Amino acid sequence: RAKAAGRGDFRIFNPEVDKALLERLALENDLRHALGRNEFLLAYQPEFDLQTGEVVSMEALLRWRRPTGEFISPAKFIPVAEETGVIVPLSQWVLETACRELKDLRSTLEYSPRFAVNLSPRQFQQDNLVEMIVSTLEKYEVAPGNLELEITEGSLMDDPEKAAFSLHLLRQHGIATAIDDFGTGYSSLSYLRRFPIDKLKMDRAFVTDIQVDKDSAALAESILRMAHQLGLKVVAEGVELPEQLDLLRHLRCDAAQGFLLARPMFLPELTGFLLDHQEKG
Ligand code: C2E
Ligand code: MG
Ligand code: MG
Ligand code: MG
């Protein structure tokens, strides 16, 4: 690269930058082929009702397993999938796979659990999103009331008109929607009020210190109070400690998700977990 520069124009060769760039290009290239090579899997993490202890829903979380056996975090590859457009076929794969696996689960459990799928901002802006979702549900005979879509505040703010239109359409079809990572974006509850959404997933950041820090607890309490006034259910994310769970229950949080209650699991383990949970009642 230094050679390509004009006479007297020496660029500084930075091995660190070059390494990062090469890694990024390799990741992009691998990601383009990963779908065809069957390298993706879904893990599911249940959400629990804080009053009854029942599993209210389970969130599908994408996993990329490289041929070496190494797992790559969605936090790392989802943004790349968004930039390269791979997100479009990939999200279709996520929905189809979740529906297919749900059918399996349904026959074992003898009831149909609700499940949630994450949508990135770019997916949410896709023109035929609702049709794509509805026809996939039909194909796998999944009732629309069994599906919940998780979107972030950013998905609403890019094009609020279009977002509101899609959300109304989803509601007409009986598909529920949740705001993921609530509190990390720049929207307020009064802003969210204009959109037909069903629940908020309160970000882990509000839960982490709740048991030791009065301000954190006060913040969580006010989110809960306002959300309830607007008729929204609240799920706490990232619950890791029993003290957090107790406090959230005390604050009348509706549901919780986190490593304390259940980790994300692949289908066989999830099936066992749900059967076990059902038995215990
Ligand atoms: P998210 O939707 O907010 O998912 C929750 C993340 O928190 C998951 O990370 C989950 O494993 C993790 N988590 C759950 N409980 C705990 C806990 O108690 N403590 C801690 N420290 N972490 C906990 P994961 O699976 O790595 O996913 C990261 C993000 O990637 C997700 O955040 C979501 O935004 C995105 N993502 C995952 N799957 C998909 C997908 O299929 N499509 C899209 N568009 N995005 C996805
Ligand atoms: Mg989510
Ligand atoms: Mg979340
Ligand atoms: Mg989160």
Automatic annotation (TrEMBL):
<protein>
    <submittedName>
        <fullName>Bifunctional diguanylate cyclase/phosphodiesterase</fullName>
    </submittedName>
</protein>
<keyword id="KW-0812">Transmembrane</keyword>
<keyword id="KW-0472">Membrane</keyword>
<feature type="domain" description="EAL">
    <location>
        <begin position="24"/>
        <end position="278"/>
    </location>
</feature>
<keyword id="KW-1133">Transmembrane helix</keyword>
